[in-house]
Amino acid sequence: MTRWCQKNLVLSILAALWLVLALVILVAQPSILSSATLSSILQFATLLALVSLGQALVVLCGGAGIDLSVGGNVSLSAIVGIMSLQAGLPPVLLPVVCLLCGGLLGALNGILVARLRIYPLIVTLGTFYLYSGLALCLTDGSAQSGVPAWALPWGRGMFGDIPLPFLTLVIPAFVIVAVILSFTSWGRWIYAMGFNENSARLVGIPVDKVRILLYSLCGLLAGAAGFVSLSWLGSGRPDAGVNLELESLTAALLGGVAIFGGKGGVSGVFAAVLLLVALKTSMLQFGINSVWQVGVVGLLLIAVLLADRLSSRVSQTNGAR
């Protein structure tokens, strides 16, 4: 195995999966490759892309970082936003409420992890149930109406074949984060934390503050996804974020972010999000029951973890020679 393959095994798997999916579609059902299908993929990818971007940042900074609460955060942020309108809040403030709610929920995760030293897996699993349960309790499990009319043309609008939320929110968010990671000291701090947290502390990097900030940013992006769900679906649904925690983690790892942090970037995450949504869309087009979609995502997550472990072992073996 070449040095390039050792460092890029996960991204190689991502490229191979894209190739296999494209070949299967071309051979079995080329009619799927239409502008309508592309628009549908991008529309469904909007929520997952925003959540996966935040998930990638949390994983990238190391410390066994993970946020399993993102799905519950999306649902609760949307419900808090729509119920705020029902309570008399000016409709123009809806996106602010969703973003603020998501950011605060993410900050709670960050404080519990960074200040109280509670294992991220346990913390975010607990807050996942908390946020999801609150969304269900506040609504009795029913959708909430009252989305302002001004939000629907944006949430359902198109620029050509590209949904407006994807064009105006997802793409700028990925570009901004890519620039921060590549060209700023904040980006270097994040990679340093993931590579070796103790060394990062010794050189003066405010590890705890950065970690809280990243969890807050992850929550903020989940809140943005909650607002998109309101604008797109036209109602606040307590299950808007269902399964996003599993899918976002899969997208982050499949996109090349190392499970223990310190390695990866957002371009691979972007491609992985599109692959996951395209795969699920293709399964529906082929008439495969939707209950299999979660199973396929789980298999991909296992596969990418095995690939990451294999890559690490190969690197350690070569380093010992």
Characterization of the model:
- Part of the ABC transporter complex LsrABCD involved in autoinducer 2 (AI-2) import. Probably responsible for the translocation of the substrate across the membrane.
- InterPro entries: ABC_transp_permease.
- It comes from Rouxiella silvae.
- With 321 residues, the protein is mainly alpha-helical.
- The chain has 14 helices and two strands, in the order H-H-H-H-H-H-H-E-E-H-H-H-H-H-H-H.
- The chain has a two-stranded antiparallel sheet with strand order 1-2.
- Helix 4 (70-86) packs parallel to helix 6 (120-139), helix 8 crosses helix 9 and helix 12 (244-254) runs parallel beside helix 14 (291-320).
- The longest helix is centred in the C-terminal third of the chain and has 30 residues, at 291-320.
- The two termini are 15 Å apart.
Q: Let me know the average pLDDT.
A: 89
| Oligomeric organization of the protein chains | single chain
Radius of gyration: 20 Å
The chain-level structural class is mainly alpha
Q: Report the end-to-end length measured between terminal Cα atoms.
A: 15 Å
- N to C succession of SSEs: HHHHHHHEEHHHHHHH
The neighbouring-strand order within the major sheet is 1-2
How many alpha or pi helices? 14
Strand fraction: under 5%
Please tally the β strands and state the result.
Answer: 2
What would you call the shape? globular
Instruction: Outline the low-pLDDT stretches.
Output: 1-7
Helix content: over 70%
Q: Could you describe the largest sheet, including whether it forms a barrel?
A: 2 strands, antiparallel
Membrane topology: Multi-pass membrane protein
Protein name: Autoinducer 2 import system permease protein LsrC
Main location: membrane
Organism: Rouxiella silvae
